[in-house]
Each structure stands twice: as structure tokens, then as C-alpha cells.
């Protein structure tokens, strides 16, 4: 090779190598996400996943102490510029509207909603009080409606599309013993997501669902009454329960908050640009679904 040409080739190789060493561009850079139940296990893990991809995140929750703790952890890892918190009860119409005003004031808009705030509380049907039924319905069903409605209002004004991810539950598709209120509320979330996918399509708004199986690690749900309420069916030994869920999965693995966050990342990012009205079950492979 003539001397000059050889030099050009080496220079080109150097540039290629440099490119390969450069970190991949952050796929959510400039996006803004509102994560309800953001102080909890799955919500906080999802917020962290989005922050890693360059998003700004507003954590909305009713638990101020947990919000402060999650904020401290995430802002230390990323920056105080990209994380905010708001006390918002998803059942309170005006609190939801005011949280959206806050996020617009802080970050200039919203691109992604993760509707995740939730509880799990149930009983055999003959012992299910109207209060217990309404509690499940108001937080899970009505709460998901209220936060989605505000997101739709904003998405319409912004005219830039948007992505909504519902964290529902495999119990929204499959019946679970002594949990009719929870299962019915979760089923309504899934159907709401499908209706909203249909309504949002012409606006470029995608709405999808992640259905976790039991996520025991980091979840306040499994530290509360849910475990006791299900003692007759599953016992109260949390480690034993984790083992039971692991064993009954095809992959023989526990489902972690980070696994749900990964699906919520896929569904909120451009990786799933052609998906709407769909469900991802994150259950390590549910044998029951195959043997029924
Ligand atoms: P978690 O209790 O750790 O987190 C839920 C968060 O929601 C909490 O921080 C709580 O304070 C908040 N919250 C509750 N009521 C609220 C309200 N009215 N307004 C605003 N925030 C409220 O539980 P998690 O396991 O992270 O659950 C997150 C979601 O995943 C829930 O919707 C739950 O039903 C669903 N899910 C969980 C599991 C599981 O096994 N952990 C399985 C299937 C589905």
C-alpha cells in the first residue's frame, strides 16, 4: 500500500475502535416519567431503570418516609436534578391533577406514566366487607383510571405521543383463592389498558401491561396483611413461600422488582414502538398456564 493509504486505514480502524468503546447513547434521554407507587419495590426499581437510561423521574406515593428514602438513594446515584417526589394519593382526583401540574412545572411535561401504586388485601368472598372491596377498587381500578386520564389530557396538549405502562398482576388474568376483590380490580386494570390502547393509538399513545407473579423481595405488600390473609392457603413462612413460587415456575427462579422494571423499560421505550394493548407476564414461566 502507498504510505498515505496505509495511514488512512489505520486512522479509520482507530476511529472504529473508539466508537466501540463509547457508551451507548441513553435511550430515554430527555424523557420524563411519572411513576406512581414510586417509593415501593417495583416502582423504585422501575424509576432506577429509567434514570439509568437518562430519563427524569417524578416518584409519586402516599408514603412520605419511603419517598424520602427512595429519593435519597436515587439522587445520590444519579443527581438531584433528575429525581423529584410528590405526595399523591391515586384515589384523590385533585391530588392527581396537582401532581401533574408539579411535574410539568419541574420537568416541562410528561412522556411516560407508570401506573403501579397498589395494595393487596383480600378475603374469602363471604368475609369481604364492602370497605375491603371498595379499597381494592378505588386504589387499583379507579386510581389507574385517574392517573391515566390526566396523562391523556396532557398527551393531547403536548401532541408528542406518550407511553403508559400498567403494573397489573397475573391475578388479573388468573383467579387466585380468597382474593376476589384484588383479582377483579387487577382484571379491570388490564381491560382499562386495552381500552386506552385503542383510544390512544391515533394520538401516538401506547398503553401496555406488565403482569408480575409474586415479587416478595422489596415489596411492602408481602410485609403486610396480604401474607396473613393468605395463610390458610400458603402458610406464613415468607422464605417457604418464595421457594414455593420459585419451584412452581418453569425457570425455577424468583421474580425480582428489577425483572418487572426491565419489562416496564421495554414497554415505555422505543424498543416497543410497535406494541400497544399488550401484556408481558413476568412470572419465570407459569406452569399452571400450560397445564390447565
Ligand atoms: P409495594 O407495597 O412495595 O409498593 C406499592 C407502593 O404503592 C407503596 O410505596 C405504597 O405506599 C404505594 N401506594 C399504595 N396506595 C397508594 C395510593 N392510594 N396512592 C399512591 N400510592 C399508593 O408493592 P409492590 O410489590 O412494589 O407493588 C407494586 C404494584 O405491583 C402494585 O400495583 C401491585 O398490586 C403489583 N403487583 C405486585 C406483586 C408482588 O408480588 N409484589 C405481584 C403482582 C402485582
Query: What compounds sit in this structure?
Result: nicotinamide-adenine-dinucleotide
In spatial order, strands of the major sheet run 3-2-1-4-5-6-7
Shape: globular
Overall strand count: 7
Considering the chains and any ligands shown, give keywords for the structure.
292 residues, alpha/beta, seven-stranded parallel sheet, globular, binds nicotinamide-adenine-dinucleotide, Bifunctional rhamnulose-1-phosphate aldolase/short-chain dehydrogenase
Provide the fold topology.
Elements: H1 3-21, E1 32-36, H2 41-52, E2 56-61, H3 64-77, E3 83-87, H4 93-107, E4 112-115, H5 130-158, E5 162-167, H6 180-200, E6 205-212, H7 225-229, H8 231-234, H9 238-248, H10 257-268, E7 279-282, H11 287-291
Parallel strand pairs: 1-2, 1-4, 2-3, 4-5, 5-6, 6-7
Helix pairs in contact: 2-10, 4-5, 5-6
Bound molecules: nicotinamide-adenine-dinucleotide.
Provide structural commentary.
With 292 residues, this protein is of the alpha/beta class. The protein has 11 helices and 7 strands. It has helices spanning 3-21, 41-52, 64-77, 93-107, 130-158, 180-200, 225-229, 231-234, 238-248, 257-268, 287-291, and strands spanning 32-36, 56-61, 83-87, 112-115, 162-167, 205-212, 279-282. The chain has a 7-stranded parallel β-sheet, with helices on both faces. The site of nicotinamide-adenine-dinucleotide (NAD) has 30 residues, from helix 2 and helix 5. Belongs to the short-chain dehydrogenases/reductases (SDR) family.
Amino acid at each position: 500500500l502507498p504510505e498515505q493509504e496505509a495511514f488512512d486505514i489505520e486512522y479509520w480502524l482507530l476511529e472504529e475502535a473508539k466508537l466501540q468503546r463509547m457508551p451507548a447513547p441513553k435511550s430515554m434521554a430527555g424523557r420524563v416519567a411519572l411513576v406512581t407507587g414510586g417509593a415501593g419495590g417495583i416502582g423504585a426499581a422501575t424509576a432506577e431503570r429509567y434514570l439509568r437510561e437518562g430519563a427524569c423521574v417524578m416518584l409519586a406515593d402516599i408514603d412520605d418516609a419511603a419517598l424520602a428514602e427512595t429519593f435519597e438513594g436515587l439522587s445520590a446515584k444519579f443527581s438531584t436534578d433528575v429525581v423529584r417526589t410528590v405526595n399523591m394519593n391515586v384515589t384523590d382526583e385533585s391530588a392527581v391533577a396537582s401532581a401533574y401540574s408539579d411535574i410539568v412545572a419541574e420537568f416541562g411535561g410528561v412522556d411516560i406514566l407508570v401506573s403501579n401504586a397498589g395494595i393487596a388485601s383480600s378475603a374469602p368472598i363471604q368475609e369481604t366487607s364492602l370497605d375491603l372491596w371498595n379499597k381494592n377498587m378505588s386504589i387499583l381500578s379507579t386510581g389507574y383510571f385517574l392517573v391515566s386520564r390526566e396523562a391523556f389530557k396532557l398527551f393531547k396538549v403536548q401532541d408528542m405521543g406518550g407511553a403508559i405502562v400498567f403494573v397489573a398482576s397475573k391475578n388479573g388474568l388468573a383467579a387466585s383463592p380468597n382474593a376476589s376483590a384484588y383479582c377483579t380490580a387487577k382484571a379491570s386494570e388490564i381491560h382499562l389498558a386495552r381500552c386506552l390502547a385503542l383510544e390512544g393509538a391515533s394520538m401516538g399513545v401506547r398503553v401496555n401491561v406488565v403482569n408480575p407473579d409474586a415479587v416478595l423481595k422489596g415489596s411492602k405488600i408481602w410485609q403486610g396483611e396480604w401474607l396473613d390473609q393468605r395463610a390458610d392457603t400458603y402458610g406464613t413462612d415468607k422464605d417457604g413461600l418464595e421457594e414455593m413460587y420459585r419451584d412452581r415456575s418453569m425457570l425455577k427462579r424468583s421474580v425480582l422488582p428489577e425483572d418487572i422494571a426491565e419489562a416496564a423499560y421495554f414497554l415505555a421505550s422505543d424498543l416497543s414502538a410497535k406494541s400497544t394493548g399488550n401484556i408481558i407476564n413476568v412470572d419465570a414461566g407459569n406452569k399452571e398456564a400450560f397445564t390447565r
